[in-house]
Amino acid sequence: MRDVAASAGVSVATVSRTLAGNYPVSEATRTRVMAAVESLHYVVNVHAKALSGAVLGPVALVLRDITGPSLAQVAAGVEQEAATRGRLSLVCATHGDPAREDDLVQLMREQHAAAVVLVGGAEIDDAYHERMAAYARGLDSAGSRLVLVGRPPLPAGPPATVIEYDNRGGAFQVSAHLLAGGHRRVLHLGGEAGFSTAQERRAGHRDALRAHGVEYDGELDVPGPFTRTSGYLRTRDALRAGLDFTAVCAGTDMVALGVLAALGEAGLSVPGDVSVVGFDDVPFAADLTPALTTVRVPYEELGRSAVRLALEREERVSGDDHVVLSTQLVIRQSAAPRA
Fold first, then answer.
1. Most buried residue among 66, 82, 128, 335 by CB atoms closer than 10 A?
2. Is 169 exposed, middle or buried, given 0-12, 13-18 or 19+ CB atoms closer than 10 A?
């Protein structure tokens, strides 16, 4: 700023007033100052402005990776809501590394982020609770807010906002749809054991089995990553092992893509020979052949709600910091009653 003042032939205070726009200066002075700013490529010290409360802190989105379509929808919701509120949004990927997550949360604390939004399922244990509690308290001490999206709430105490969706209920609906159609041998390709999202979806599937009087068969419940490759390999292996099933309940739409590929490779038609359902209702689900029966998750609204609740928490009378959004069964052509 001193360099700008010297170049423009004015005082540092005049430069500060000109850039802040909160004090009248002549048009000639403004022109000289802005010309000096441009020629010197001057950039405002955002850290100093943040400390003085003169700039709105960004909203940081921290997720495992940025390639998944469902996570991209959450990111879109965060960005849109942040933009409407005059906030910059930052997207950071952990690649599943807890140490990197620690570093990113600390960096966002130092950057005076208004909120840090952690997205996606996690392995819930005591160590996880301790880490999240430390994040929440550290961010709160800096005037920020921890927001957990798609994760269960923490034990009472840490200052955090939680935005969930009805994983268990959605899984119940889509599994019950197959069972109501007469399917009794349903191959369930759930997520990795221990992760909160996978646990809830598996619980919903088992709820549906009980509700329809179908005995649980562990042979038909095959865990694995929520990826297309995993869906393909698990289905291929089940077919090669001669496992008897008339329907596949895929843990995600990406897993369902792999299922469809493996069934097609084996010469089986969908839904003629095997019915297939997914979970998420990502954009491509309706464009598959056949179009995928699945569970719609309001991912974009999850992102919007995360920002809204974090930034409005001091204004809300109810102080509700735990919200569960509903899911919806979407019936298309990939599942049919058993003949």
1. 82
2. middle
